[in-house]
UniProtKB/TrEMBL annotation:
Keyword check for Transmembrane helix: yes
Stored InterPro entries: 2TM_dom (IPR025698)
Record field: transmembrane: 25-46, 52-75
One Pfam family, short name: 2TM
Keyword terms of this UniProt record: Membrane, Transmembrane, Transmembrane helix
Protein name (record): 2TM domain-containing protein
Domain 2TM: 17-79
Length: 83
C-alpha cells in the first residue's frame, strides 16, 4: 500500500518538504545503485579497460553524499512566515 499524506500536499508545509526531499534522495540512491552496479557488472564481465568508471562512481557518490548532507544538516524545514 502506498504511503498517504493526511492533508493536501503543499510544498510550503515543512513536514511535506522533509518527506519529499527524503523520497527524492531515496530515488537518487536507487538510480545510483542500479546504474553503477550495471556498469561494474558489464565492466567485470567484459574485462574492459574502463578507467573512467572509477571517476563516474566516485563523483556520483560524492554528489550523493552532498545530497544526504543537504537534507540532513543544511535544509531548513522550519515554518516560514508569509507576509
Amino acid at each position: 500500500m502506498p504511503p498517504r499524506w493526511p492533508r493536501q500536499p503543499d510544498r510550503a508545509d515543512p513536514d511535506y518538504r522533509r518527506l519529499d526531499d527524503r523520497m527524492n534522495f531515496a530515488v537518487h540512491v536507487g538510480i545510483f545503485l542500479a546504474s553503477n552496479s550495471g556498469l561494474w557488472f558489464v565492466h567485470n564481465i567484459k574485462q574492459a579497460d574502463w578507467s573512467w568508471i572509477i571517476w563516474v562512481t566516485g563523483i556520483w557518490g560524492a554528489i550523493l553524499l552532498f545530497h544526504l548532507l543537504y537534507i540532513v544538516a543544511i535544509a531548513d524545514y522550519s515554518k516560514k512566515s508569509h507576509g
